[in-house]
Structures are given as structure tokens and as C-alpha cells.
Q: What sequence folds into this?
């Protein structure tokens, strides 16, 4: 478990002045990792965000390779040493300012890619509020399945189609069947949705056959990013029995460029508890540290910018807001559960948390929730209405941590745009 | 679609004499690809099996890199040229014999690895016989779900835990809940099963957003191997709703070392048709070539060697036999379906066909079928009985094609052994 240290001190200032803006996602206390390249580059470089700049870690002499998956395998102590070295070089008054200055680039002028090579991608289902709301639509009498409070439900997803923030994708075509149809039909998805998730990026691997215990689980997580698991609800409804979602999910997902380390998130940990009357998890999913501070207080937002808004220079409407603290299973529990059968994790593996909806109806992390399965259209500030996504819509996820006495730690944004379906 | 040419002529003999044995899996007409290394090697080399030997393709001057995933991206014409060049060098009387001879190694003396770096792994469910038998156990009144005859059902699986043939793995621990229990319990899986599958290895990639049509689908498949998708049935029963199998499958899978190319399988193609009265697939899953010869006639066998048999020098019992011709969906249909929504495939992606059971009860490709969900133990030649797998059991999958007027084309074997569960 990470702890608060001198790198979290709120009065720590950087000689990169934009990092000292209280509204910045990327103060000196954050230093999230990502990959970037300049216009002339073929290969990715490793960078950390600082204010509106990005620091080239290799050029600054802090690392000797631009292999992010290798860097992510660092032991927790080595990772913390690197954090301290970055803070030392970037703090106001650092004797290394000149050297680091030469390794800075303006974030808006570089290309930000996926933060690493993604190995296996697993999607979980950790929001009991999401599971219950969706369950009510499908099974009004029995919304939450009996395994939900015992098993951190997860399934494997598609890694190849995970795109960096800013990319667009075509509305998928597929088979769908309405209840009143006898046979399925083929064509563009009509219930295209987003899912507000966090992406947990695995750092240290475990060998096949060697489970990771709760006490060590967080040592294997490099950090946290924003993640949008786009979903074709009509395709999903027809295809998903009995083996789970497939083409309804694997046409595209979007991952934000910056991975915020668990070290940076140390001040925002919160106790993990369950509602009165819910069962205690089985022993392999329990640890004292997890009970004391297994949750993380991360505010999350979904914004929608339609093509009409974009043309009018409008940044979009906020559709909902929720908090990762409300998840039913913690980061450590996901790692311990995923490996309890001996399954091996590798650096660069990605866990999606599943849609992070809050307890209130307006806190749904997907349109399926906000529009009650497409039955209740809502109106945007532009006067347009939505149930599901239309072509040209851009969805933007944002996340940030705030706590009195600490600097704001932000996640930047995760942005993707829907293009029309490919014609058949 | 591949065609029969001079490389399939049955009278073609090799100067590697073991390849001319009619019982060999690896005659000159086969030439499956794999990766091997000598004792002193750190890196894998690309080889093809020929009789009881393996030809080092780079040492023979046929390729200039040992990157199998790169080789698999070859265009079909280039792949066929390579096949012709291999046959030319290995045929009896070849002027290149001396050069190729220097690139030969005894198969039994080298280490055979996974044939490539595996990207995304997808498991399908193409045997209607398997789906029906399993469905009967779960839903006696409604064994086959309504989507089965329309959708080539598939889901994403775990790539990290795919092991090469010969490896062993620990019986997984996990949560299970019997119907008469109020709460789940944790411990070693008690219903450990194998699944007899073929693994289709993707060669040529497609870009995200560009579906692959039926007519081009097979050009994207490099070849076919044997695949065992080990399954923890008791874990699966408790965890799989609503998002599909997860820990019940991702603790281990086993892939055979040799990938038999679709070119080598050209003589064993068969018409693809459906039982009278079944619906025709939707248009995107139909092509004239697929109807004419979309199926492949591959005989498949499952063998079980218990620890007791092994100690007695007994090779094991054959548990069942089936044929890939009986699958409900073809190779081309799996590719076309997987990409119809724009999902991108990459070289090295693996498709499991799903358990390949035949129409007769004794042709079940898993113990869940052969023991009727564990209710009917059967007796082995050693006098031992089985419902599910015991610690020390080795499961061996075999496959081969035979047709009058052609040489036998074999797949070698896919072997894995169950070790006791890790203690908690």
C-alpha cells in the first residue's frame, strides 16, 4: 500500500509554472506516465505530464530505455525512487532545472499515444449500482445475480482495438434481433453507448501458477487511467448468451494517455466497507490494509459534445458524475481474484473497472442507464435530444482527485468520436 | 481458397527418409511451421517439421528473420512460394540437399515452443453437438439458445496463460457453489476438464474499421494447430453469469507446436452445408467457395494417460474421436464474423474453434459430455475410473487428415499434465 510522503506536500512548487496553477491536472505532485512522439519520430518516448508540458524521461537522464512495459515492471521501491528523482529535478529551485528544461516539450505540440503495449485486457463489473440498474432492465424481479456480492465478476476483452484518446471509430455493423422479430437482421448498431471506466495498468508480472495475495496485490498495479468501453447494446442483447459480450464490445475502446500512479493517489485513499447486511468477502479477498484504505476517491465525469455543438464552438454538456469510491470491489481485490487460480499477469495488461455508476439515477455511467434502456430521451443544452449516441458525437471522460490540504491530481481526458457505419 | 497443386502429389518423396513413412504426421506434403530452440539458444528459431526432423528455415536460406509473427503476415502468394521452395529443397533428388541437410535437427532433441507470440485469443463455440449436449445439462427443455444458428458465438479468452505442448499446470483454486449451499466455498477445482479444440492462427492483419469479407477470409488465416482449453466446470457454473467464463478458463490452455497451413490442408476440404430445415446464414457469412468447400475433414482424438498408466509404461486410452467437418461454422465464417464490426485482427491472434464434439454421445470432446456432467463415471483400461480429471493425468490431443490418393497430413500432438492445486 502506498503512503503519503514529501512528494505529496501541497506547498511543493515547480519551476514549470503551469504546474503551479491550482486548476492544473498535472501538478508536481502527480507526474503521470505516458508515451509521446514528436512529428519526426517513428518510435514512442516515455514522458511524464507536468503542467502543460511533457518531460522526456530519457532525455532528462532518468531512464535509459523508452520501453514503457519494461519501466512498469519496476519494483515499488524503484518506482518511488524514480518519483522522488522526478520531483527533485522539477521542483522550484532545483539545480537540475537547465538539464530538465532541455527535455521538456509542449504537451499540445506532441502526439500522445497509448501509454504502453497492452497485453491481455480484462473488463470487470465493479459498480453494484451499474449492475443493479442494468439488471433491473433485463430482470425486473431479480436485478442482481446471486454471485455478484461474492465474485468480482470479470471477463476478457479485446486488446487489439484499444485506441488512444482522440481517435475516432466507425459505428459497428452487426446482427441484432428485436423481441418482435422472428429472425435477426444485419446493419449498423442503433444502440451505441459509452461506458465510463477506469483502466488499471498492470506493472509487475506474476508467474503462471503463483497467485498474488491481497497484501502484495497493489504492488503489481502501475497506475490508473481513464477508459471508455464503447458498447453496442443491441448487438450485445442478441449475442451475449451463453458466453458473454463479444462483437458488442470489441470494435473499439479508448484509453487516456496518462497513467496516474498509485503513489500519486496515496492522499486519496479511503476505507473500504460494504453496506450493512452484505456478506464479508471470502478470505482471499480480505486484508487489513484493504479494509483501512482499499478504496480511492476519484471524481469522474462524462461529457458529450455533439457535431452541432462542435460546429458552434461549444465544449459539450456534462452528462453525469460519479466517484470510484462507490465501487463494490477494490483494485487489490481485482488483482487477487484474477490470479487466485494461478492466472499470470504481465506488464501492460489492462483491467477495466467496468462502468462506474454512482448510487443515484443521474450518476449512471452509460446511456443505457441515463436513458433507461433508450426509453427516456433527454435534452441537451443545444436543444438536441439523445437516447444513444449519434454519428459525430464525441464523448469525453474526465477524472480528478481533490482533498483539503492536498493538490488536485487530475487524469486529463479520454476522448473519442463516433463515425458513420461502414457500408456493406 | 487454397487449391491442390504439385506439392500435394502423393508420390512426392523426400530425401529425409522418415518423412516417407506412410504413418508419419509430417510428410513432404505437410511442412507445418513452428518455433524451436537448441539447448544453448536463448531465442526461438522458425522451423518446419519433416518426418522426425525439423528444418531450420533461416539456416536453409529460405527466410531472413526468425520473427514468426512477421512471417505469418506473408501474402498468400508469397506463402505458397515459400511452400514450393521448401518442397523443392526437401524432395528426393534435390540439388539443395547438402545445404538443407546442414539445417536439419532431430525433432526429439530440440525444444518446441509456442508457434508464435500470441496476441488476442478468441474462443468460439462452433460444435452444435457440444453446445446441445452441454445445453441439455443446464436447460433440459431448451438446450440450444435461439441465437446459436445465427451467430457464430465467441468470446475473448486469456492469451498470457497459453502454454506449449508438454507443459504442466496446477489445478486451479477458486470459488464454487453447489446448488444446496447457501454461500460459496473456496478451494481446489473438483470438476477439472479438457476441451478438444483446434486453434486457428491469424496471419494477415486487417486495419481497425475494415471488415474482412468471406471471399478473402481464409487469406488471413495462417494455419491450424491442436488446442486444449482446460476448464474448471464448477468454477464456471458459479462465475459465468452474466458476462461469460473467466477464471474457469484462464488458468491454462495448451497449444500444439506445429501449425499446419491451409495450403497443406487443400486436399481435405469438404462441402459445407446445414441440416435440412436450419436457417441459411445471413449474407455476410455466405460465399460460394465456403459452400463448395468451407469445411475441413480433420480427424481428432483425445487420449488420457493417468499417472498409474505412465508408471506402467502405458501410452494411455483413447477417450473419444470426432471430426472438424461436423462444425456448424467454418474458418471463413469465424473470420468474417469476428471482423464484421470492424474489429482488427493481428498476426499471431488465435481463434479456438470451441470443443469439437461429434454427433454421437461417445464423440464428446470434453469430460463434461463423456461423464454426463460428472454423473456417469467411466472405467479406463487400467481399471481406474474417471468423471473429471485427477492430479497426474496427462491429456493428449491428436489430429490427422486422410483421403484416398493423398498422403496423411498430421498435426502431431498437444499434451498437458495436471499438477496438484497450490496450497492456500
A:
Amino acid at each position: 500500500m502506498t503512503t503519503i510522503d514529501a512528494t505529496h506536500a501541497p506547498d511543493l512548487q515547480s519551476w514549470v509554472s503551469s504546474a503551479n496553477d491550482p486548476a492544473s491536472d498535472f501538478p508536481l505532485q502527480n507526474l503521470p506516465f505516458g508515451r509521446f512522439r514528436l512529428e519526426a519520430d517513428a518510435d514512442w518516448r516515455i514522458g511524464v505530464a507536468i503542467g502543460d508540458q511533457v518531460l522526456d524521461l530519457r532525455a532528462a537522464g532518468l531512464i535509459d530505455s523508452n520501453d514503457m512495459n519494461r519501466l512498469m515492471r519496476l519494483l515499488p521501491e524503484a518506482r518511488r525512487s524514480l518519483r522522488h528523482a522526478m520531483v527533485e529535478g522539477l521542483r522550484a529551485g532545483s539545480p537540475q532545472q537547465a538539464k530538465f528544461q532541455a527535455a521538456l516539450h509542449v504537451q499540445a505540440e506532441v502526439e500522445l499515444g497509448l501509454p504502453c503495449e497492452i497485453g491481455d485486457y480484462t473488463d470487470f463489473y465493479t459498480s453494484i449500482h451499474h449492475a443493479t440498474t442494468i439488471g433491473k432492465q433485463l430482470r425486473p424481479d431479480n436485478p442482481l445475480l446471486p454471485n455478484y456480492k461474492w465474485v468480482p465478476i470479470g471477463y476478457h476483452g479485446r486488446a487489439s482495438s484499444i485506441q488512444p484518446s482522440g481517435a475516432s471509430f466507425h459505428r459497428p455493423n452487426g446482427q441484432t434481433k428485436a423481441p418482435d422479430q422472428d429472425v435477426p437482421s444485419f446493419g449498423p448498431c442503433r444502440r451505441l453507448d459509452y461506458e465510463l471506466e477506469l483502466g488499471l495498468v498492470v506493472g509487475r508480472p506474476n508467474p503462471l501458477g503463483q497467485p498474488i495475495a491481497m497484501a502484495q496485490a497493489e504492488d503489481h498495479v502501475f497506475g490508473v487511467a481513464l477508459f471508455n468501453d464503447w458498447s453496442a447494446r443491441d448487438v450485445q442483447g442478441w449475442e451475449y448468451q451463453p458466453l458473454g459480450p463479444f462483437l458488442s464490445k470489441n470494435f473499439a475502446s479508448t484509453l487516456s494517455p496518462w497513467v496516474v500512479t498509485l503513489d500519486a493517489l496515496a492522499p486519496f485513499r479511503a476505507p473500504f466497507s460494504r453496506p450493512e447486511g452484505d456478506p464479508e468477502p471470502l478470505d482471499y479477498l480480505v486484508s487489513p490494509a484493504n479494509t483501512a484504505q482499499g478504496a480511492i476517491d476519484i471524481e469522474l465525469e462524462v461529457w458529450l459534445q455533439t457535431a452541432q455543438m462542435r460546429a458552434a464552438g461549444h465544449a459539450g454538456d456534462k452528462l453525469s458524475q460519479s466517484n470510484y469510491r462507490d465501487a463494490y470491489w477494490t483494485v487489490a481485490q481485482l488483482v487477487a481474484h484474477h490470479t487466485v487460480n494461478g492466472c499470470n499477469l504481465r506488464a501492460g495488461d489492462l483491467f477495466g473497472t467496468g462502468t462506474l455508476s454512482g448510487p443515484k439515477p443521474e450518476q449512471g455511467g452509460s446511456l443505457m442507464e441515463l436513458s433507461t434502456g433508450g426509453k427516456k430521451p433527454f435534452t441537451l443544452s443545444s436543444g438536441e435530444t439523445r437516447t444513444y449516441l449519434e454519428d459525430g458525437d464525441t464523448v469525453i471522460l474526465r477524472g480528478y482527485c481533490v482533498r483539503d490540504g492536498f493538490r488536485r491530481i487530475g487524469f486529463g481526458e479520454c476522448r473519442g468520436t463516433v463515425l458513420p457505419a461502414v457500408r456493406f
Q: What stands out?
A: Residues 121-419 of chain A form a domain with the Fumarylacetoacetate hydrolase; domain 2 fold (CATH 3.90.850.10). The CA atoms of residues 378 and 384 of chain A lie 8 Å apart. The first helix of chain A runs from residue 68 to 71.
